[in-house]
Structure formats: structure tokens, C-alpha cells
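[User]
Protein folding is very new to me. Any chance you could explain this protein sequence and its C-alpha cells? I have pasted everything here:
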Amino acid sequence: MAENLVGAHPSSMLIHGPSKLLVHQYHWHSPNVGIIASYTPNANDVKDHFGVFRGVDQIEAFAQATTGSCAAFLNYLKAKEKSNVDKDEFIPTFIGIGNVNFHSYLLEGDTFISIGKIVFYKFRQMVVDGRIYKVPKDLDLNQYFKNFNEEKLNNYEVGDDFILVAELNGITGRAIKKTNKI
């Protein structure tokens, strides 16, 4: 694994099953600072919900892209130092959701990005603030975010053609060590 998640498949960090993995690609990542990842809802994601990707699923996608992916990566780096790498050792869990404000919506086939800024990280617990933006059609996100940096992240510098969908604060996750007890 490289120094960040760009180019890695989300399943290499996240243990969510294929139908519940709501991250398609990582586009920018600074391990102790934040991340940008994308997802495009499919027919199953919007089934029985008028073709709209539900807000609760947007929050889940954001959490997977940010607290789940970033904390797993930092845990991976720590475990790698000990020569003991096992991504299945911990279960990512939600432990808190702060303020969430929706400004727009997403439909099947709308690609969106989750931009997350790490606010706190200690002992497998991470708090992230960020935003979800709908991406303009046919935009090459890897090329677009190739020269992205921390200053741009802190200012949410994306083009005017990106549509703000949601603002999320205090998204908190913790990696819980697996036990044999159910």
C-alpha cells in the first residue's frame, strides 16, 4: 500500500460487503488531514425511494469515505509498523453524528464527492467535518484533484459547477476490536 489511499480500491480498507460499500474511488488523501472520495448511486441504492439517494445513505457514504477509510488507513500504518496487518480485526462503527444540513439531493447515476476534514483522531476514534457535492457530468475527478492540497481542502475549493448537497459536522466513528462473542 502506498503513502495514501489514492489509487487503492475502497475494499482494501473497508470491510463493508459489496452491496453496502458506498465508496467507488479515492481521489485525494492526506492521512492526518482529510480525504476526497466519490460514489455514484445505482438502481439498488434508490430502489423504492423515488429514484432519490436517501439522506441517511449519503451520511453512511460520507462516513465510509472519511472516518471509516481514514481511520482504517491510519490503523493499517500503525499495524504495518508492527508487521501485523489485518483489516478485518476491527469493525467500523458510528458513535455520533453532529449537525447535518441538506441543500440539494442526489439521484441514481449522480456522481458525488465526499470531502472530509479530520478534526480529531485518537485511539481508533475519529471525528470528521465535511461536505458532499454533486459532481458535474463527465468530469475526470482524478485529474481534477491531482493538485489539490490542504489549503484547498480547508476552504472547500471546488468549482462553481459542483452543487453543494450536504454539510456534515461531528461525524464520529470508532474502530471496535472484534471478539468471538456475538
Notes: The beta strands are 25-30, 34-39, 90-96, 100-102, 112-122, 125-134, 163-177.
